[in-house]
Design goal:
The protein is mainly beta. It folds into 2 domains: 13-22 and 196-290, Immunoglobulins (Immunoglobulin-like, Sandwich), CATH 2.60.40.10; 42-193, Roll (Mannose-Binding Protein A, Chain A), CATH 3.10.100. The protein has helices spanning 50-54, 71-82, 99-103, and strands at residues 13-16, 27-29, 34-37, 42-45, 125-131, 158-163, 168-173, 191-193, 199-209, 212-222, 225-234, 256-260, 269-277, 282-290. A 4-stranded antiparallel beta sheet has the order 1-11-13-14, with no helix packed on it. A hairpin with a 4-residue loop joins β2 and β3 (34-37). The two termini are 33 Å apart. The model is unreliable at 1-24, 236-240 and 242-254 (pLDDT under 50). The structure holds calcium ion. Calcium ion is lined by residues 59, 61-64, 66, 68-69, 185. Calcium ion (CA) binds next to loops.
């Protein structure tokens, strides 16, 4: 096979941004009950009250079936998600978020609830997996303390929670207090780490039209993706009668489209699609070849 000779000038760089339903620069609603935070590579359950909405019978804590459960029962529910007992959105590595991860959802510029609008959220308390480091209950013993008076049972350990009315972090006892017989129940919002390919492109094609070329591409998944560039190259030396065979996959619906009207009919153009992630990593796809002409529709 002879090498394809062409010289081309990068005459145009087009910045096209994702048309995904983005409500925040970092949050991508996956449309399946999950939201991905592309700034942290974390996927969150979108539901504000997962237990109540998915499997209310699980909750026998306090007021049954309201979705407010103890810390341990919240973890048990997530274990059930990963086991396939409860809705898991196709993933089995859900976990309770750390307090830092919970805080990453807080929008301190608003309240009731203080969270990005990508998430429905009750203005209530949500568990984290981080225990309160300041929980060290040491009885104070003085010379005046009668023997045995310091022998109180330790209060339950505390987990740090975010109160989404105002976004503040507060400690909450993980289980019932043996002394005051009071239990504390909170909501859960499971999280998982997103791994794998930065972007999975399912199709990319250049459709020739009359005096324009329509570029269409679709992605199956995007992680950490800032957007796209399109590079166009003009073939100035045609060396064969047949167009260079395209190897693009079939179109499975067009999530993206860009119309290039900076073209002349009967000229052949090459198109490259480049995705650019937040770390500056670029991956180029293509080329796709198009020859706009009058009879193209
Ligand atoms: Ca409850």
């Amino acid at each position: 096979m002879k090498p394809i000779k062409f010289s081309y000038a990068f005459s145009l760089v087009l910045f096209v941004f994702s048309f995904c339903p983005i409500t925040h620069a970092a949050f991508v609603d996956n449309g399946d009950g999950t939201v991905t935070d592309t700034s942290t590579n974390l996927m969150w359950v979108k539901s504000q009250n997962l237990i109540n909405e998915d499997h209310p019978a699980f909750d026998n804590d306090g007021i049954p079936q309201d979705g407010l459960v103890t810390w341990q029962h919240a973890k048990d529910f997530i274990t059930g998600m990963n086991a396939g007992t409860y809705t898991n959105y196709g993933h089995t590595n859900w976990r309770m978020p750390t307090i830092q991860e919970m805080q990453s959802l807080v929008d301190y510029n608003t309240f009731n609830p203080s969270i990005d609008p990508a998430f429905p959220c009750l203005p209530q308390i949500y568990w984290s997996d981080t225990l309160n480091p300041e929980w060290l209950w040491t009885p104070v013993v003085t010379s005046a303390t009668p023997a045995g008076d310091y022998d109180y049972p330790l209060p339950p350990e505390e987990a740090l929670c975010v109160h989404f009315y105002n976004g503040l972090t507060i400690p909450v006892q993980k289980e019932a207090d043996a002394v005051i017989q009071k239990s504390y129940f909170s909501y859960i919002r499971p999280v998982r780490n997103v791994e794998g390919t930065m972007i999975k492109l399912s199709s990319f094609k250049a459709v020739p039209k009359n005096r324009k070329v329509v570029l269409q591409w679709a992605t199956e998944a995007e992680v950490d993706n800032a957007g796209f560039n399109i590079y166009k190259a003009e073939v100035v030396e045609k060396i064969n009668q047949q167009l260079i065979p395209a190897t693009g996959s079939p179109v499975s619906g067009a999530d993206y489209q860009f119309v290039d009207e900076e073209v002349k009919n009967r000229k052949t153009y090459l198109y490259f699609l480049e995705d650019l992630d937040f770390n500056g990593q670029k991956t180029r796809h293509g080329p796709e070849i198009a020859t706009p002409r009058l009879l193209s529709r």
